[in-house]
Amino acid sequence: MTAVFATADLIDAHGEVLASCETQFRQFGGRRAFHGPIATIKCHEDNALVKEQLNQPGEGWVLVVDGGGSLRSALMGDMIAKAATENGWAGVVVHGAVRDVAELAELDLGVKALGSNPRKSAKTGAGALDVPVAFGNVVFSPETWLYSDDDGIVVSEEKLDLPGR
């Protein structure tokens, strides 16, 4: 049974142990609530590492992509998101833009981003994997835990016990 949770309830239960992201993301994926351990990428207007990572087994992880907040080009579209779904990723948080938003909404994948842009990004492979990234007054470190729903995103150093409903 999938655990059901609300980030507001997690904050109420765990207080200051959790970091709450102040960045106001939009929901784009078909899975509105998602959680899992964090993998990270830092890149700028180049999605080669995003594609490479999401084509690997995800095993319920959440990929946090720090695109520097750029909305000039999309760091993920429907093809990469479909690969993420097929490879078992729970979700993707993009501090930047995505595209193919109608298709993203149909996928069983959590997708949050700042906005959308139909322009493709570069594909040179520039960027860094598995490094701490920061935005919204939160540091997203590899292997910490992310919980996301319609209210926002919270991060915990350790996995939280969630009630099964």
Strand fraction equals 25-35%
**What is the residue-averaged pLDDT?**
96
Q: Report the end-to-end length measured between terminal Cα atoms.
A: 8 Å
- The tally of domains stands at 1
Helix content estimate: 10-25%
State the CATH topology.
Answer: Glucose Oxidase, domain 1
The computed structural class is: alpha/beta
Radius of gyration: 14 Å
The CATH homology group name: Ribonuclease E inhibitor RraA/RraA-like
**CATH architecture annotation name:** 3-Layer(bba) Sandwich
Q: Helix-strand pattern, N to C? A: HEEEHEEHEHEEEEEE
Global outline: globular
Number of H- or I-type helical stretches: 4
Uncertain spans: none
Q: Given this structure, which CATH class is correct?
A: Alpha Beta
Structure notes:
It catalyses: 4-hydroxy-4-methyl-2-oxoglutarate = 2 pyruvate; oxaloacetate + H(+) = pyruvate + CO2. InterPro entries: RraA, RraA/RraA-like, RraA/RraA-like_sf. It comes from Spinactinospora alkalitolerans. Keywords: Lyase, Magnesium, Metal-binding. It contains 4 helices and 12 strands. It has 165 residues and is of the alpha/beta class. The protein has one domain (7-156): Ribonuclease E inhibitor RraA/RraA-like (Glucose Oxidase, domain 1). The strands form 2 sheets. Strands 1, 2, 3, 4, 5, 6, 7, 8, 11 and 12 form a 10-stranded mixed sheet that branches. The chain has a two-stranded antiparallel sheet with strand order 9-10. Strand 6, helix 4 and strand 7 form a beta-alpha-beta unit. The protein starts with 6 loop residues before the first helix and ends in a 9-residue tail after the last strand. The mean pLDDT is 96.
